[in-house]
From TrEMBL:
GO terms for molecular function: flavin adenine dinucleotide binding; monooxygenase activity. It comes from Chelatococcus reniformis. Keywords: Oxidoreductase. SUPFAM superfamilies: FAD/NAD(P)-binding domain. The lineage of its organism: Bacteria, Pseudomonadati, Pseudomonadota, Alphaproteobacteria, Hyphomicrobiales. This is FAD-dependent oxidoreductase. It comes from the Bacteria.
Amino acid sequence: MPNRAKPHVPVAVIGGGQAGLSMSYFLKQAGIDHAVFERRTAMHAWASQRWDSFCLVTPNWQCQLPGLPYDGADPHGFMKRDEILAYLARFKAAVDAPLHEGVAVERVTPREAGGYCLTTSAGDYSAGQVVVAAGGYQTPIIPRAAERLPPGITQVHSEQFRNADALPPGAVLVVGSGQSGAQIAEDLHLAGRQVHLAVGDAPRCARFYRGRDVVAWLADMGYYDMPVTAHPLREGVRDNTNHYVTGRDGGRDIDLRRFALEGMRLYGLLDDIDGTRVSFRPTLAAALDQADKTYNGINAAIDKYIADNAIAAPPASVYEPVWQPGGEPATLDLAAAGITTIIWCIGFMPDFRWLDAPVFNGQGHPKHVRGVTAQDGLYFLGLPWLHTWGSGRFSGIARDAEHLARRIEARAGQAGGARALRLAV
């Protein structure tokens, strides 16, 4: 039988979340043919990895997906899970991307002649350029020590948590206090569960300060426009844990010390597991102090901005701890404490094993400059701090996608010019 040529797409976009569809929006504007490959359904992570009470931690006005900025009646509120899903459904319909749902990209390989070969669950394709918009949160992290827990302990990752009623009766150990861990711990606490929380090194910030949402102050101060190259930590900021705060019930601080006053049990970093006995490092006091230092530091920066610009605002304040740990709990017997469930809230690992290109560092993270790699025609979009704080969020994805669309268009034009020259010769 004769060999059939592989279907060719000038640009292959891998991932059908907000990043991939944002990329499609600008490619369509530029008149560039492309295909978006999504192994499940578009926006599936928002439907499958968020708990029932999930809401945005940034105000609605920061939702600036291309062509569909937030147009609801509560710009200073925080959309709940179902509202977010409805917003994303409208975005998907508005973009009307050339979307291939249910098609998994299993391998991407550069071709010697230029461009890329894509092996997918629906057959092979060739592509002139590739945009990886699959995100950086593919593989849930669960420590190997968890294998030593007895089978009677239910274990779930944060992406699997839905609500307190879906868990077995009993107390719950939440491991990790980043945005997900802190909010899930609060959700269980408000539901009346006895919560034990292994506190990590996540910072925290105020929800409102001096009469406004802290996000609004930071936006005015230019923080969200700061490129990673101007950040004091440079690329190191990509490894930082997000500040914990919540938009629940109109928005409020998350204060772990106050939770402790109300009966939540706090511990340091989880160190090891031996049957039903869990041990912790003596890091609790330092973690709480450092989180409060960050909280007060952000507020102090806002104070300076207000003073420098002679802005009328309510008076400044400094957070004072409402609770101090009486000691550093070293161990916890799960059985004795009545703990029936552990929720792992320690994040995700990237998994780009399907991408056969020399663009990764020793930790498996892609090396790039604003999404552009050293591999000709290969780009990344939607990663945390790809360019700014908002790069992996609704607020900044459009700017990054537009930048990459211009690079893609310029490269396509150069390639077309070279082909025309060869034909003329």
